[in-house]
Amino acid sequence: MKMRIVVPDPASATALAERLTTSFGSDRISRHRRQIDVFIDREPEPAIVRVVDAVARWFEQARVGSVEMWLGERSYRLAQWVRVDR
User: Fold this and answer.
1) Among residues 86, 85, 55, which one has the least CA distance to residue 70?
2) Are 69 and 75 in contact (CB under 8 A)?
3) Rounded CA gap, 55 and 27, in Å?
4) Residues 5 and 38: beta-carbon distance below 8 Å
5) How much is the pTM?
6) Residue-wise pLDDT tens digits, 39-81
7) Which of 18, 40, 74, 83 lies at a CB distance of 3.0 to 4.6 Å from 47, suitable for a disulfide?
8) CATH no. of 2-79
9) What is the pLDDT of residues 8-43, one digit of tens each?
10) CA distances from 18 to 11, 36, 38, 62, 73 (A)
């Protein structure tokens, strides 16, 4: 199974790819400009949760509002919640 994550700019893609490489290994991560592919062979459900968790932690450091994630033929938008003080 391949997960594809598309981010707004190449610098953000590099930072996220480095974080995912730490979790999954360089043989499971491929980066092309703004796109990161994560290749999952075994136990897809826990691996998907790990990818989403890594993206959530990356949001804390990145100045990115959202990313697009593809699982097979379906796409999802992951967004960071921003607290608004009034």
Assistant:
1) 55
2) yes
3) 19
4) yes
5) 0.84
6) 998 788 999 999 999 998 888 788 788 899 999 899 999 987 7
7) 40
8) 3.30.70
9) 989 889 999 999 999 899 999 999 999 999 999 878
10) 11, 10, 12, 13, 25
